[in-house]
Amino acid sequence: MNSTLKSAWYTIGQLTDIPRLGAKVVTFHGQPIAVFRTQTDDVFALNDLCPHKGGPLSQGIVHDHKVTCPLHGWVIELDSGSATAPDEGCSHTYPVRVTAGKIEIEIQNMAVIEPNTETLST
Amino acid sequence: MTQTHSIPPEKPRLILIGNGMAGIRTLEELLKLTPELYDITVFGDEPYANYNRIMLSPVLAGEQTIPDIMLNDDDWYDRHGITLHKGVRVERIDRLTRQVITADGGSFAYDRVLIATGSRAFIPPLPGADLPGVVGFRSIADIDTMLKNCREDGHAIVIGGGLLGLEAAAGLIAHGMNVTVLHRNSNLMDRQLDPAAGRLLEKSLEERGITIRLNANTQNLSGVDYVTGVTLTTGEILPADLVVMAAGIRPNIDVALNSRLYCEQGIVVDDTLQTYDPKIYAVGECVQHRKQCYGLVAPLFEQAKVCANHLAQFGIAKYGGSMTSTKLKVTGVDVFSAGEIHAGEGHEEIVLADAARGVYKKVILRDNTIEGAVMVGDTMDGAWYFQLMRDKTDVTALREHLLFGQAHVGDAGHGAKARVASLPDSAEICGCNGVCKGDIVKAINEHKLFTLDEVRAHTKASASCGSCTGLVEDLLASTLGGDYSVAPSVKSMCACTDATHDDVRAGIYRHGLQDIRAIFGQFNWKTADGCAKCRPALNYYLLCAWPETYQDDPQSRFINERAHANIQKDGTYSVIPRIWGGVTSPSELRAIADVAERYKIPTVKITGGQRIDLLGVKKEQLPEVWRDLSAAGFVSGHGYAKALRTVKTCVGKEWCRFGTQDSTSLGIRLEQRTWGSWMPHKFKIAVSGCPRNCAEATVKDLGVVCVDSGYELSVGGNAGIKVRVTDFLCKVATEDEVVEYTTAFIQLYREEAHYLDRTAPWIERVGLPYVQRRLIEDPVGRTELAARFRLSQQFSQTDPWAERAAGKESHEFAIPLELV
Predict the structure, then answer these.
(1) Is the pLDDT of residue A111 over 70?
(2) What percent of chain A has pLDDT over 90?
(3) Is residue B533 part of a domain?
(4) Domain limit, last residue, from B247, B264, B283
(5) Between the CA of residue B143 and those of B149, B635, B807, what are the distances in Å?
(6) How far apart are CA B738 and CA B668, in angstroms?
(7) Where does the pLDDT of residue B544 fall: very low under 50, low under 70, confident under 90, or very high at 90 and above?
(8) Could you read off the pLDDT of B304-327 as tens digits, one per residue?
(9) Which phi and psi angles does B547 have, rounded to 5°?
(10) Given A38, A56, A63, which is nearest B527 (Cβ)?
(11) Is residue B324 a contact partner of residue B289, using CB atoms and an 8 Å limit?
């Protein structure tokens, strides 16, 4: 398995592309990533996958710094990706920043690009 | 060299006197609201952290242990920075210098005091009552004494045949003692049961080996350095190795009296739980509120919430007293009682007595609402009667079946599962989430859960469809036991607010609130943006209140209503075009087939509502699919919405040899009038052409059954989780009247039901007579309702699919950006 971790910032559009308390989806090599905008214009990105049963978090209702999954109502913290108690589970989060009105997201290429062939073949 | 310390600003000091359930519950509520506001100190005169006093009965019976019933361990106090003084008794409060004085001479300054000293066993002033071996039944120490004195074939005398006395007796008999209960009059639990119920209970306890002596008054207790006997007023002497005094409880107001706080039976507090000293609050069994002292646990939870709100300086909550119910916690002996137990003037009684089965049920009515219930042997429906009582539901329509229980009034969901306590641990309680009885009981015990919401959060039981709510509440009651009461007095909309659905709906009109943020402000929402429960409800209430002006908030809608399609478990969507009255044509079918092929839609399914469902459509495909369907003349079928779904019809007299009216055309006409209207929940209509009822109209929200002389209208049916047959509303002569009554009924439901209430539970709450009053006895009101519905429809009958196919909300359906 490739051991060098590379990361890069990707621009995914304007802050104003996303309605407040809304989300948009981007994909990275097939992996959907949900990018959320809160009422106070904070932006968060996490895998668009509820740790419960894989529901699309991007389609949920956003409130404060949380989103409620549309499938079974789990509430996920946007900053940590963790489910709120008593549910347990976590969705992977990505660093994001807003520069001159543009949203940028940092992705470490490795984990997604390189298929884990060594493990498969041994 | 000088060093500067940053001194943290001094916090106000809150002292809690009494380390019991009421006080700690109040602190927990307070910490939820303002975790950092106070510097908190707790005094408890018992050498333990906080424990669940209502579980002492199972501990005595050997069903639970002391560690099982601890609620907050020492670690909890540490974690929240609370100083706990265990085994320290507070003597008095010096209100002039604002200090709490302990029995060991310590003094502690305060800014606020909360008194929660609870109650103590009332020990009648009998000669010998102070002998060792004579105990109350209130604390772990009492239980210790009782257990130490338990021995096979020993004699235990319990003085008092009330709730506590009987639980003590049942606990002691489990240890092999000979137990005699002495009760002062002729009726066990005379505060909660009528004589018939008392006799049945007596029989049931005697079968368990407990000797019951009625009209037995104690003269004195005898013994030299330990109790050995009880002498009755008749002169009879009963041998005793242990005497339990269960002659009632009294508020423990010593501290308050020593502090010269105004007390009557208890410490007198107002609706904010404040005593006559504004710096001092009090909650729980030591309190007297509106002339009432409570000895049960449910009121204390409500008081804790209100008191915490004021301690947190929010200043908006109000305690209006509690309605309480009682459940005896003796395994295998079911007793429930609430409200009035004896019929007085203006009361009616309905009684069911089946001595062979050991079942007795009595409901007391006044003006067709329940004011009391007494049950022995089968208490399955206690929670239901209590609910009807609390909601003051008009039960005229239920009266015939009332005593047979909720299972017989249309709720076929769980009727057969009576007596949840006797179910095995493996019995599935929640079918939606696969939660068994054992899981729920374990969660209640392990996580110290007290409320339905807590059980929902931890187990998911009753968190989806809610049909097992009654079972879960029963499990809570039977697991927590004792005097646990299941129903709080009012339910707030969600955790974001203390306001109820009705408060909010009324407030929108009263204050002319025009958007969600205005509601948050008016009702002091605790969260910045609300949550997934309240926002959709508020959006609907505003839409219903101001149809002409309110701007719908898509971000406050569940995804299905935002995307105008139904999300599936894999994240794709289903599309159901409207097929008016279920009547279609070759060209329409061809158009649907073309769309299915063109977009490679994997599944095409006929629905139960006479329509065609296209399943597996990707979100970004939706506008194109809709565009093609629109071109063929279709509009949205709202199969995803809290709105009118289908109007199911049979072919009626046009074809059917039995048909009495043109049910198909009438169905289409109704659908064209009512489609597009947002409602509290989904709404289904059916029209059958004759009483054979092929369109199954009697399990719809509104059903029309055509007869030769007109149209029979019935409402509130449901074929889902709980099968409920509609209630007959009225018969009308013309199609125009069908339309008027239907639209008026829908508008009444739209304006008054809580969000997410189907018509069935709404009607069960308000009672059918209420609906009849509004729609039949008040023709002017009915036409006004119908007119308001027509007005609102002017703004809602635009096809959301056509709009989106033309580009509206395009960001919602954008193809995800691929990052490379």
Answers:
(1) no
(2) 70
(3) yes
(4) B247
(5) 10, 70, 73
(6) 13
(7) very high
(8) 989 999 999 988 889 988 888 887
(9) -60, -25
(10) A63
(11) no
Give me the percent of chain B exceeding a pLDDT of 90: 65
**Which residues in chain A have their CB less than 8 angstroms from residue B529's CB?**
21, 38-39, 62-64
Determine, yes or no, domain membership for B175.
yes
What pLDDT, in 10s, does the model give residues B35-45? 899 999 999 99
* CATH number of domain containing B49: 3.50.50.60
CB contact under 8 A, A19 and B818: no
Q: Is B79 exposed, middle or buried (0-12, 13-18, 19+ CB in 10 A)?
A: exposed
Which residue has tokens 């009760």? Answer: B183
* Whole-number pLDDT of residue B412: 40
Q: Do A12 and B530 make contact, defined as CB atoms within 8 angstroms?
A: no
B208-212: long-range contacts, CB 8 A cutoff, minimum separation 24: B208/B170, B208/B173, B208/B332, B208/B333, B209/B173, B209/B179, B210/B169, B210/B170, B210/B173, B210/B179, B210/B180, B210/B181, B211/B178, B211/B179, B211/B180, B211/B181, B212/B161, B212/B180, B212/B181, B212/B183, B212/B188
Residues of A within an 8 Å Cβ radius of B? 10, 12-13, 17-22, 24-28, 32, 38-40, 53, 55-56, 59-64, 66, 68, 70-73, 75, 85-86, 105, 107
Give residue-wise pLDDT tens across range B390-435. Answer: 888 888 888 888 888 776 665 444 443 445 666 778 877 887 777 8
The answer to whether position B486 is within a domain reads: no
Residue B815 DSSP label? P
Residues B657 and B771 in one domain: yes
pLDDT over 80 (residue B591): yes
Residue among A22, A59, A85 minimizing CB distance to B567: A59
Q: How far apart are CA B741 and CA B727, in angstroms?
A: 14
Same domain, B53 and B90: yes
C-alpha R_g of chain A = 15
Residues B520 and B610 in one domain: no
Cis peptide before A86 (omega within 30 of 0): yes
Q: What is the rounded average pLDDT of the residues B365-371?
A: 93
Q: What is the pLDDT of residue B421?
A: 65
- Chain B residues whose beta carbon lies within 8 Å of the beta carbon of residue A28: 818-819
B87: left (phi over 0), alpha (psi -120 to 50) or beta: left
Is the confidence at residue B331, as pLDDT, over 80?
Answer: no
Phi and psi for B156 in degrees, rounded to 5?
Answer: -110, 135
A-chain CB neighbours of B530 within 8 Å are: 63
Question: Is there a single domain that holds both residue B570 and residue B709?
Answer: yes
How many structural domains does chain B have? 4
DSSP collapsed to 3 states, B112-145: EEEECCCEEECCCCCCCCCCCCEECCCCHHHHHH
More reliable by pLDDT, B123 or B586: B586
**Listed ranges B159-173, B183-197, B697-711; the one with the highest mean pLDDT:** B697-711
Q: Clarify whether residues B110 and B203 are in a common domain.
A: no
> CA-CA distance, B549 to B547, in Å (whole number)?
6
Residue numbers of the domain that contains B77: 13-118+251-311
Give all domains of chain A, ordered by start, each with its CATH number. 14-113 (2.102.10.10)
Cα separation, B472 vs B465, whole angstroms? 13
**Does B528 contact A32 at a Cβ distance shorter than 8 Å?**
no
Alpha carbon distance B58, B61 (integer Å): 5
| Residues B162 and B227 both lie in one domain | yes
In a domain, B433, yes or no: no
| B550 and B581 inside one domain | no
pLDDT at B721: 73
Name the pairing type of β-strands B70-72 and B50-51. antiparallel
Mean pLDDT (chain B) is 90
Same domain, B243 and B255: no
Residue A49: partners with Cβ closer than 8 Å, 6 or more residues away: A32, A55, A56, A57, A91
